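Re: beginner question about structure tokens

> Can someone show what the tokenized structure looks like for a real chain? I only ever see the sequence side.

Sure, here's an example I had lying around. Input first:
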Amino acid sequence: MTKYSLPEIKELRAVKSAREIDNITRAQRISEKVLIEVLKKLKVGVSEIKLARFIVNSFRRKGVKALAFEPIVAFGKGSADIHHWPTRARLRKNQIVMFDFGCTVNGYCSDITRTFFFGEPTAKFKRVYESVLTAQERALKILARGEKKAKKIDASARNFLHRNFGKNKFTHGLGHGVGTAIHEWPNFKPTSSDVVPVNCVMTVEPGVYLPGWGGVRIEDMVVIKDRGISNLTRAAKSLDLIIINI
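And the corresponding structure tokens:
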């Protein structure tokens, strides 16, 4: 029997087969369908808890046996809480709405975050949103060029956001591996020594969080290729398409 060390096991686990990538992709497609459905439920007075329950029930109706994690639904100032737990807070006009959720297919996870604006967005929201989207695009671009060092990939987005908002407004890692667990090795972090292997599935999820105002996070899942990437996330994220007119 071949014996592997723990570092070798996590690296072997990170490299996904075509079948595993297919399961993750299918899970992401289901999550995107649920996102479309929950957006139709946005109305003045609806609570975070009610939408979170709707998300769970929508997954169940689609035959999902297990969620990847409990859904995050955050309105307004609550979106500045990175791991916000849905509350009885009710949606009002001209508020940020953040969704972060995922499901499993054959035990493999999906993960998606989208931030919306319910009403007429302020200039501040537009600036923050476009900055986060630019940060994500910078990371995706360096990945597409073939960069595999996690620290450099993280820095491509983090340095941009730090210059624009300061060093304490983006406090979590840029992304993480996804598989049978929602958080797997490797990790995009400032201090990471990880080198991302080919056929690894990673999230890319920069964010800006301003206490007392709100936050913006945009998250895609990508497959790392020898040269380039394959983005498994199709949900719209351009500014004009995340504004919910009321």
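Each token stands for a local structural state, so reading them left to right follows the chain. The mean pLDDT is 96.
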